[in-house]
Amino acid sequence: MNLNDFDMNLLPVLRALLEERSVTRASRRVGLTQGATSAALARLRSRLGDELLLREGRQMNLTPVGRGLLQRLPALLDELRTELAVHEAERLAAKRLWRLRMPDFVAATLVPELQSRLGPDAQLVVLPPSNELPLQEFERGELDLMIGSRLPLPPSWLTRALYREDWLVLVRPGHPALKRWDLQAYAAADHALVSPRGGATVGPVDEALDRLRLRRRVVLSLAGIAALPPALLERPLLATVPRRWALQVAGRWSLQALEPPFALPGYSVQMIWSASIQHSAPHRWLRGQVIAAAAAAA
Hints:
Elements: H1 10-20, H2 23-30, H3 34-48, E1 53-56, E2 59-62, H4 64-93, E3 97-101, H5 104-118, E4 123-127, H6 135-139, E5 145-148, E6 158-165, E7 167-171, H7 183-188, E8 190-194, H8 204-211, E9 217-222, H9 228-234, E10 237-242, H10 243-250, E11 256-258, E12 267-273, H11 281-297
Parallel strand pairs: 3-4, 3-5, 8-9, 8-10
Antiparallel strand pairs: 1-2, 5-12, 6-12, 7-10, 7-11
Helix pairs in contact: 1-2, 1-3, 1-4, 2-3, 4-11, 5-11
């Protein structure tokens, strides 16, 4: 049999006939008239070279070929229907507007690669981190994904690690601390800090310094990264920032990127989402694109 000219629309009718063993019941199931279903059965018999259903007394029984098809066809059609549904969900997902919350540092790493993966028909809105878990935003469809780190989460929330991040120190050439780059020079300098949620003057760096019984003086706290490089050129400050972003901007702004002069633990950057969208096909597609973008950017 040549499948190139086989009418695939006959397959749901074939399944109904094999499972119902009745033209009348099969016609009601697929929404055709009884005459159209009988005509479809005749075409199937001709194309498959088998009677498929034989009348024996007041009932119709399956031929051996019919029984063999009944064993395999439902699973194959269900699998095909699932694949087509996933394909349709992905096609529609690539055309929708996506809203993600993430810090500037993470956006600088992920967004260029993610944009290309979402495709030209998608819209991407990147929002700053929230001070509270935005459960209502997820439930109202106003948020599709969060990306961040060091967030206390209830057990019902779901996460997936994207990559590990650590730290570099950005400094302008000629900074006094460069004369003797050690822990004492680092702690004695003035510092700039980026607080993604705004307002903070301490962060993970200060936690590490506390363990060494040291403190630093933060004289500038910024909610975003855009103003940080020019600020470092204007004043003799140190800024301890994620490595990936530091490497992006150091050469562009003629800044030096140095290893911290003390042990500073790294951290995991994660996707975070509500259980309410766990099984949404478009959101599964989005999370897959973010995972791929993170792997490419790493």
